[in-house]
Write a structure and sequence with these properties.
The chain has helices spanning 2-41, 49-64, 66-74, 110-133, 137-145, 147-154, 162-191; strands at 82-90, 93-100. By secondary structure, the protein is mainly alpha-helical. The protein has a two-stranded antiparallel sheet with strand order 1-2.
């Protein structure tokens, strides 16, 4: 009976931890979007001195957190968007280059700024959904049933590759067979 309390306590603790991790990233990206908005508002000629000062502080904060912002966004699976442009080299020559939306969050270009805002809003939505899934019993049932797949995702094993996908599926089937065996053994022992 004490084992059941420990198991239930650990399960509730994992629900809470998963919720807190995802909701903290949701609020982090919400803060990033707010800082980016403050930065944009302070860049107009008609902006007040206090808006320009707030924009400077917001811009500094975004630059200081640039790597973490990119990491949090890319962990959702959302892809960075790139904008192509022609860089003049001189003597009538140009070179096509691309610029990353997540590496240039403060670039005052409407295309890049729009793409970066769109990417961050998608990532923010992802973390909100993941936080809410923490309380969904169907999510946990699926998680337990497909536990080996979840482990492979955690370790970064790409299931799209032929051999790694086959290995994950074999491990998944073995997991199901072993689980059925242990459930059957437990059932027989309770009947005795």
């Amino acid at each position: 009976m004490e084992d059941n309390y420990i198991f239930i306590s650990l399960f509730i603790l994992s629900i809470i931890i998963r919720f807190l991790l995802n909701i903290s990233k949701f609020y982090y990206l919400k803060k990033v979007l707010k800082k980016q908005e403050i930065y944009i508002q302070g860049q107009f000629e008609e902006s007040t001195e206090s808006q320009k000062e707030a924009a400077g502080k917001a811009g500094d904060w975004v630059q200081e957190n640039q790597i973490e912002i990119k990491k949090v966004v890319l962990n959702t699976g959302v892809q960075d968007q790139k904008q192509s442009y022609m860089k003049p080299l001189g003597l009538g020559y140009t070179k096509e280059q691309s610029i990353s939306a997540l590496d240039n969050l403060l670039l005052l270009n409407s295309d890049i700024m729009g793409k970066s805002i769109e990417i961050m809003k998608r990532a923010k939505g992802y973390y909100k959904v993941q936080a809410l899934k923490s309380f969904n019993p169907l999510f946990w049932i699926e998680f337990i049933i497909f536990f080996p797949k979840e482990l492979s995702k955690y370790f970064g094993i790409d299931e799209e590759k032929k051999y790694s996908g086959i290995i994950v599926k074999i491990i998944q089937v073995l997991y199901w067979l072993i689980s059925i065996y242990f459930m059957y053994q437990s059932y027989i022992q309770t009947k005795l």
